[in-house]
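request received
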Amino acid sequence: MSHRITNIVVAGLGGQGVLTATDLLAEVLHRAGHDVKKSELKGMSQRGGSVTSDVRFGRVVHSPMVPDHEADFLVILSPDQVEPNRHHLRAGGVMIVPDIIDESRLSNRRTLNVALLGALSAHLEAAAPEAVWIETMRALLPERILAANLEAFAAGRASAKGAG
Amino acid sequence: MGSMGHRLLSGNEAVAQAALDMGVGFGAGYPGTPSTEILENFSALGGRAEWSPNEKVALEVALGASFAGARALATMKHVGLNVAADPLFTAAYTGVRGALVIVSADDPGMASSQNEQDNRRYAVAAGVPMLEPSDSQDAYDMTAEAIEISERWRIPVLLRMTTRVCHSKTRVERRRTPTPPPATSFVRDVKRLVMIPAYARPAHVRLRATLAEIAQWGEACALNRVIAGERKLGIIASGISAIHAQEAAPGATVLKLGLTHPLPIEKARRFAQSVERCVVVEEGDPCLADALRAAGIAVEAKAEAFRFGELSVARIRKLLKGDTSPGFRAPPGKPPQLCPGCPHRLTFEILRKLNCIVSGDIGCYTLGVLPPFEAMDTCVCMGAGITVGLGLRHALPPEQARRVVSVIGDSTFVHSGITGLVEMVYNPPKTGHVVIILDNATTAMTGLQEHPGTGRRLDATPAHPISFEALARALGVPRVRVVDLAKESEAYEGIVAESLAAEALTVLVARRPCILALKKNKE
Ligand SMILES: Cc1ncc(C[n+]2csc(CCOP(=O)(O)OP(=O)(O)O)c2C)c(N)n1
Ligand code: SF4
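response:
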């Protein structure tokens, strides 16, 4: 099974931190020793349009894009983006949506992206241990938003573990 | 393995790192997705980089630096090379003294562009070598290689990236030992650097001889390599297509071309003969297939349907089967919109209300074409907002001509709007004209870059801000008015209506900063 590639798609709206999330995710997996590729389509500064970004990891990854219907995980930051992105998921793939977190419990709503990464991290335990996530967030995130993000990450992770 | 000695970098970051490591002493460009981050990263790493007013200027300044003996870099998106095409073609004749690498970042699929032209054509047309990276490691290695080719053969080199290569992150090993920029000096060499016909004729002959030498070298160089597989299927590919192809057809033998101009024709011929079936897999125009077939090599070209848009693993599987059915179509996402509070909004509300015919241009404000505004009627290329508007004014019957307004962003105005203003003053339409410069104090569309009107350079150091209103007055535009959108939002509609009624040449500078730029500058 060492040739199997794990495919993750993160989707949301411009301004929600989709690309920050996949930057973190890709770096975590890289530090954990996998071959990783991350792809994104960005262009416009304006807020509000759909943004998706792909992360693939395994022993050797070729294309940086997750083929349609082959995502093992689909992380959605905005409820209205579920339908436009459902086709990414493979049969039996896992979708992670915002309602798994009680948003009022986040001290900063802009940390939703990292909270959902926390939930994803519980599914990727074998690929990347929690310590690597923490170390990577410390390395990549600016000091002034670090604490809020670490807290959001922990909340997301706990919610996924609670759900089984 | 793992992270040892490797970093995850985007293709753009990798080009910047290689430029720094190779002693590039000067980088110039104009922002344009997907190329923008190259110079931003090069500057952040400590390289000397500038935003020029447009791509032609960037390429010429970089060329001058290379004449001085520097290793120079010019970056732009694919359509930017159209603007810079004039210096490109003759720079191929003059050649360089240091090195000159020109990055053309193409956008197959038009993630953020007005067309999907294939700039591999430019390498052939201008007669310069072209390298095509497939991932970030290639972007690093080939930037270094491009500098060496440029220096060895004294020729400008095109590095062709595409959106997927620019913006994907993959592992990169920094394989070059950093070297400082070489010393520069002027060496008079008029026969090479002054292109009067008497010197240009031998220069063209020299160029073709140089290309023949590079072609010879390319036959054996490591940029073009065979990835071993079964004999049943051979694939010839370059750029991102070469990577997708390895996943789409895991057993195939692949000839991965890094140097796509001049093409290693004999290597390709031997490759095609060594496999049972040989297919060219390429995004965009059938450039490789045409060239290989013209050389008498039996390769299969893709079906016409694959000229359009990006390739992917799934599409290459279909391409190899000759399946041109439309297949699965992802549902549309949510289109971008002007930010809430965007200063451009008011202008389009007014133009809609006044039932104007709007000759538009490219930037965030192009979204004025979509609901709720629907207040843009044409948009072609940067600068055309002013000039297409003038053409409409000249040709339309007067009752329609009087409704024509040109809108243009501030960065776009500096890029290629100024000559349009000169045209307006020189050849004024009978009904006059109204030009609105949407001055939001940034190049917002491509991610908030500085430009000559913002008062700051690429590295945020202060610069003299050019004044659009002073420029318009100096050109002789009779009606020039600055509208402060924060203070005069009530009066704005009346000012536009009055300008239309005046039937005189008018420039309105609608001024209010982009809200994202304000936020960024505070941080
Ligand atoms: C020749 C060319 N170069 C670059 C681009 C990319 N590009 C599109 S619009 C634009 C400038 C936008 O800035 P501005 O005119 O100030 O409008 P804003 O986005 O700030 O509203 C750029 C750089 C292009 N389309 N064509
Ligand atoms: S980024 Fe600036 S110019 Fe662009 S839509 Fe938003 S506010 Fe307007």
